[in-house]
Amino acid sequence: MSTTTPEGAAVGRIDSPVNGLYSIPHIPHCYDNADPDNSALRLVQAYAPEWKDSNGKIKFKRFTEGITNTLTKATIEFPGNTASEVDRNAILLRAYGKGTDVLIDRQRELNAHTLLASRGLAPPLLARFENGLMYKYVEGDVCSPEDLRKPEVYKQVAQRLGQWHGGLPISAISALPRLNGKTPGQKSSQATEQQPQPTPNTWTVVTQWIDALPANTPELAKRRDDLRAEFTTIVEKFSDVPGLFGKSYVFSHCDLLSGNVIVQRPCGSPKDSTSHPVAFIDYEYTTPSPAAFDIANHFAEWAGFDCDHASVPTKSQRREFLRAYVASFYENCISDDESMAMEIDLRAAIDQLYEQVEAFRGLPGFYWGVWALIQATISQIDFDYASYAEIRLGEYWAWKAEADGSRAKEGKEMPVRERRWAEE
């Protein structure tokens, strides 16, 4: 089935990749960074022809929080509309960065978004276009790195992340082997049954990234080979870490930076009122992953793109986060028809996860360092990816030097990030 836009371009409907939950239109137009407003106008009018025929005032606001994609908010205003009324009809257009298919599996992203939307955990998808997606605007306040450090915010992030990890099936974004006729990761009271590794996962994704690194000079080839060898040791050490409640791999966001966390506020509520629920947006990197990696990655993002390492969470902040996370994880992991009276040692679970996050804290630096090395060769966005890569890889090497004792043995000063991480 298809409809026709005013320009005569067919808007075909495609089936959802996740259990046929719903279909979304495909618009055969591109977003053009060289002509942003006009290309965005063509897209929103192709999706909603009534925007062209109405007397409303169409406006576009381009966001700058991300360093991969172009995100544009489209609104249509009529006389007498309140800001909330305008936002309720707003559309977000996210245009993919050039060449990012080497980093991101767009089908897996679509699968993730579709599942999340079906659970009320993501804004409804409205349409696909040639180089991006359109979806409903999420009302609320986009977080800054400073916001992530506020207890009223990070406790809500912890609860929402526990909901993701505890309740969402990774089968939507991976191929899972079956165990005794049951797909691993289904809700079960058998806490000792650990999952086999799904495919893809964090480790296979980074392996693909390393393989995609440029190697057209001896120096670049050596760097790629050195990173590949280092990553082999990482996988050997971390790929079989047991997860809580039998979930060694969970439905992970893997990019939970401040700009992807929205504080949702009821219309008219003051910003300084009690804490509000949060929503997560942008699911490009959603992949089955150990929970400790997703949490450690989020903690790293407290530093922001400026890599303010003095702002990563202290021991007490991490424990407070994990208390809220573990309670939410278990609440969403156990189904209603199972024994809710089952004794669960939450203190032991928190301690286990605390130690795992402690061990994983250097890995986000390696992950985003490799990512940035690729972006430095393909991206057209005005961002110094090369320098960012060195900073993030530096986080990994600093962690390793602390973990193996080589930093202390050489008498070097403890880096700011490691010093902050060790604070009570």
TrEMBL record:
Pathway field: Phospholipid metabolism; phosphatidylethanolamine biosynthesis; phosphatidylethanolamine from ethanolamine: step 1/3
InterPro entries listed in its UniProt record: Kinase-like_dom_sf
Protein's GO biological process: phosphatidylethanolamine biosynthetic process
Protein name: ethanolamine kinase
UniProt xrefs under SUPFAM superfamilies: Protein kinase-like (PK-like)
Recorded GO MF terms: ethanolamine kinase activity
EC number annotated for this UniProt entry: 2.7.1.82
A UniProt-annotated Pfam family: Choline_kinase
Enzyme class: transferase
Polar residues bias: start-end ranges: 183-201
Family: Belongs to the choline/ethanolamine kinase family.
CDD domains with a match to the protein in the record: ETNK_euk
Gene source species: Cladosporium halotolerans
Cellular component terms per the entry's GO annotation: cytoplasm
Region feature Disordered, mapped onto this chain: 179-201
